[in-house]
Give the backbone structure.
Amino acid sequence: MDAHLISKYDRRVARYTSYPTAPHFHAGVDADQYCKWLADIPQDSPLSLYMHIPFCGVLCWYCGCQATVINRYSPVSSYLDNLGRELDLLIDVLGEGRPVSALHWGGGTPNTMNPDDIRGWADRLKQRFLFQEGYDFSIEIDPRLLTREQVDAFGDAGVTRLSFGVQDFDHRVQKAINRIQPYEETKQSVDWFREAGVEKINFDLLYGLPHQTVETIERTVDQAMELRPDRIALFGYAHVPWMRKHQNLIDESVLPGAELRLDMARAAMQRIESHGMVAIGLDHFAQPDDSLTVAQREGRLRRNFQGYTDDPCDVLIGIGASSIGSLPQGYIQNAAEVNDWRAALDAGRLPVVRGIALNQDDKLRRSVIERLMCDLTVDLGDVCRQFGRPEDYLDGCLPDLRTQMDDGLVIVDGRSVTVPEEQRQWMRIPAATFDAYFSDSPGQPRHARAV
C-alpha cells in the first residue's frame, strides 16, 4: 500500500504556510499598495511582528532559508542600521503605539547579533509598539554560535521561547550536511537559557537527510526528549537545488529514497508520541499542557509562515530582507537580497517587491486549507456559507477527493472531509485539491515533496 501511495502521490506540493503560496506572489503588489493596506488596519487591532536576521556563521548545506555566511560583525551592524530605517518608514504609516501580541526573530541566525544590539533592538521595538501583557517573544538559535553573554542579553530582552535547530544528532549525518553540532553543545545552550529564566524550548528535527536511517532518527528523538522540549517540529528535508544552489554540495546518492523517507517520518512521529507529546497538524508536536495543544483542542490552531501557532492576529508585519507580511487584504514580501532591500530604503520607500491581493475565493479556499491542515477535518458547506457562497461551491473538488478516499488518504462524508490520523503525513495532498493555483505540470512552481 505504501508503495502504491508513493508512486501515486509523492509529488511536489506546497507546505501551505500561506494561501495562495509564495511562488504566486507577483510584482503587481508594491510598496504603495502595502502602505494602503497598512493604513486600513484599525488602530486597536493587535499585530504580530517578525524580524529577519539574514546572517549565519556557517553554511548548512541542507538549508532553504535566505541567509548569508559572515566572518565579521560589520555586515550585521550595517544591516541593523538599515533595519532601523525600515522600522521608521513603517511607523510613519502605522503610527506609534500599535498593540503587539507576538514577536519573532528569525533568520538566518538571530544570535549573530552581539549582546548590545540584542538588548538595543528589543528596547527599540518596545519604544515604538505597545507590547501586550503576556506577549510571546520567540527567537531562533544556533547553538554553535551561542555565547553566555548573548543568553544573558536575550533574557534581559524578555525572550519567552527558543527554537533550536537540531536536525539530527548523528555525527555522520551532521558531517554530510555540514552542520557539526554535538548533543553536548545543544544541551549546554538549553541549560544556559533555563538558568536565565527562559523555559520554553522548541526543537527542529529533519528526516530525509543523507545517511539517515530509522534507527538514527529514533535515537535523535530520544536524545532530544532528554532535554525536555515543549515542542518539536519534524520537517521533511526539501532537496531543491534549483532554488538553493548550495544544496548541490549534498551527495544525492546517499539521500534516502521515498519509501525510507516515509518509514523515517512514521518512526519519528511514533517515537515522539511515545514520549508523551501530542501530534499537532502536519509536522508539529507539543506537550499536553502546551498552549499549542490547547489551541488545537479548542479549534483555535492557526498556520502561518512560522508554522503552527496559537497567535490569533490577522496581521503579521515582517521587517528585514526577504521577510513576508500577511494582512487581511493579502501578502507582501520584501526584497530577498540585502543589497536590493537596502537600495529601496535608500530611495525612501518600504522594500516590498512582490505580493498578492486576496479575493473572496482565495479567502474561502485559504480557510478550507488551514482548517484541514490544523484540524485534519473541515466541513466544506460550513466554510462556503461563512464566505457567502452556496454550500455546493466546492463540489467540483469532490471527485478528486473520492479518488483519494479510495486510497485511504481522506474520509469524505457528504461535504465533510477528514484526514485519518494514520495518514496525517499525506495531508498536503488533499489540501492541494482546493488550491486553485496549483499545477504539477512542467514549468509550474516546484515545491517540496509530499513526504
Q: What stands out?
A: Residues 22-357 form a domain with the TIM Barrel fold (CATH 3.20.20).
